[in-house]
Amino acid sequence: MRIIPGYSIFLWIAFVAAACGDDSEPASGVAASVPASPTAVADISTFGDLDERLTPEQIEAGRMNMGWRQYASPDSIIANDTLSYPESWEDISASAVNGDAMFLPLHGDVAGPSVLRVQVLLDRAYFSPGIIDGRWGMNTEKAIYWLQEREGLAATGRVDEATFARLVELAGGPQQIVTTHTLSAEDVSGPFVTIPEDIYEKAEMECMCYESLSEKLSEMFHITPATLGMLNPDVDLNQLQAGDVLNVPNVTTRGPAPQQAIAQIVISDGGHYIHALDASGRTLYHFPTTLGSDYAPSPTGKFTITNIAHDPTWHYQPELLTGVPDEKEDAIIPPGPNNAVGVVWMQLSKPHYGIHGTSAPETIGYTTSHGCVRLTNWDARFLAEQVDPGVAVHYRDITSDA
């Protein structure tokens, strides 16, 4: 048993037992015309509302869908097997996550403090697991696999001892995984609104703001409200005040940021991820994504980012919509985190396509878009801060396009 600084490792040996569309079909997706300005308009045309929320049951059903593996190097990935695992999601607490026990190898249909610990470290190492929930799934496995591949480790998609040790280093060392945060007046400020279903009622709102304080705190710390609640038992997340102290994932203490500039963004449609590469082709950042469906597929080929807009508004255009009468009026939906394209729109050189945020971060990787590339709001904002207009964007899948 090897001891990694800050953790006691018990090796458990497992035995094998915006919605976008094409020029020729404008009704199939987003038409975005976004000037490079602090507030801009994204012209949206979709089959339906871009706010494609899923039920917890739907998300759980898709969590262990590992179809992404065919877009990696499948010979190196070990199929999931049955684990006798000593932790469960109900074991998550601040003290357990910060404790010494780290159970390895980590993979498969498992949950608990060890999984949450890995997800926070991945976030800090710039290999995003999407939203932190303490449950192993496709987004966590993808991040582990591509980190292993970049670091020259055995790319299995499992967290073994060597992978965990390197992950700790990349994430900035064995800092506390869960830390305390004293809430400021800005942290707890609203406005908090009720988002109506009707599109024209949405247009009458001042902003597509957060619906609750728990939703705002969830996005601030990249964690589901339910899991944040596990770190803060007996706390009403919606009644917190400035000065209150909260246990939160330590996602602000990160490892050393890559010094190289992003030269190219590679998007895997089938694998549902984005890689930001430097000029040598090395992966700097990894993000899970939601991409196009069969009826509104993502494009193929090479493009560039032409404009980047923060807090875009949404131009609803019925004449471009399937199933909506053309005589319906246009509407401008105000900006905000619950806008259909989230907090950032990165326009591509192919008309009607872009990279953007989402109002439903828990769905990233679990559903399809209408052709655009959808990230969590925090990942979209981070990526937008690292790129400039002119950066190349290449849709590429290993199985079909090297």
Walk me through what this model shows.
20% of the residues lie in helices and 17% in strands. It is of the alpha/beta class and 402 residues long. The strands form 4 sheets. It has an 8-stranded mixed sheet with strand order 8-7-6-15-9-12-13-14, sandwiched between helices. A hairpin with a 5-residue loop joins β7 (273-277) and β8. α3 crosses α5. The longest helix is centred in the middle third of the chain and has 14 residues, at 138-151.
List keywords for this structure.
402 residues, alpha/beta, eight-stranded mixed beta sheet, three-stranded mixed beta sheet, 15 strands, disordered N terminus, disordered C terminus
SSE topology sketch:
Blueprint: E1 8-11, E2 41-44, H1 56-62, H2 94-97, E3 101-104, H3 113-124, H4 138-151, H5 161-170, E4 178-182, H6 185-188, H7 199-203, H8 213-220, H9 225-231, E5 245-249, E6 264-268, E7 273-277, E8 283-288, E9 301-310, E10 313-316, E11 331-333, E12 344-348, E13 354-356, E14 373-374, H10 377-386, E15 392-395
Parallel strand pairs: 1-3, 2-10, 6-15, 13-14
Antiparallel strand pairs: 4-5, 6-7, 7-8, 9-12, 9-15, 10-11, 12-13
Helix pairs in contact: 3-5
